[in-house]
Amino acid sequence: MADLEGVRTGRHCVFALHAHLVFVTKFRHKVFTGRHLTRMEEIMRAVCEDFETTLVEFNGEANHVHLLVNFPPKIALSRLVNSLKGVSSRRMRQEFPDLVRHYWRAPRLWSGSYFAGSVGGAPISVLRQYIEQQNRPV
User: Fold this and answer.
1) What is the pTM of this model?
2) What 3-state class would DSSP assign to 39?
3) Residue 50 DSSP SS3
4) pLDDT tens across 102-125, in order?
5) Does residue 29 contact residue 77 with C-beta atoms inside 8 Å?
6) What radius of gyration do the chain's Cα atoms show?
7) Domains present along the chain, CATH in parentheses
8) CA-CA 20 to 30 A from 112: which of 71, 78, 89, 102?
9) What is the DSSP letter of 128?
């Protein structure tokens, strides 16, 4: 089992839990540039570290982001998602006032929904390549 990519150990378990997350901007506004996505990745990596999870891959386009996270079984994925969306929304709106004009009706960056898919059927390398190939806006 040591040969498997992403296998981690906990106090009482060995695990390889990966989730593919997709967050869409509120009203699907196309607001992100490459600069926004670079900072978003830094923020989300910090949140993941706080949750003892690993952000394996990150990319996005003007109106959504993709994350591949490796997480321990003690983490409720919904709590991780709430923190990722909440912290990134707050920090991005503070650091990039230009984003605020898109959200005058509701001070939120993200749509209330999200996609979370367990990853296991396809090799992680295939999913990683898919996320890497997302188009980043210039």
Assistant:
1) 0.83
2) helix
3) helix
4) 776 667 899 999 999 987 666 778
5) no
6) 15
7) 8-132 (3.30.70.1290)
8) 71
9) H
pLDDT in tens, 12-43: 888 888 999 999 998 898 999 999 999 999 99
Query: What b-and-e string marks burial along 62-89, b requiring 16 or more CB atoms within 10 Å of the CB?
Result: bbbbbbbbbbbeebeeeebbeebbeebb
3-state secondary structure 80-120: HHHHHHHHHHHHHHHHCHHHHHHHCCCCCCEEEEEEEEEEC
Listed in sequence order, the DSSP H helices in 24-76 are 34-50
66-97 tens-digit pLDDT:
999 999 999 999 999 999 999 999 999 999 98
Nearest-CA neighbor of 24 among 76, 60, 48?
60
Nearest Cα to Cα of residue 138 among 30, 29, 44 = 30
The closest alpha carbon to 110, from 137, 89, 138, belongs to 89
Residue 131 pLDDT greater than 60, yes or no: yes
Q: Are 49 and 75 in contact (CB under 8 A)?
A: no
CA distance 22 to 122: 17
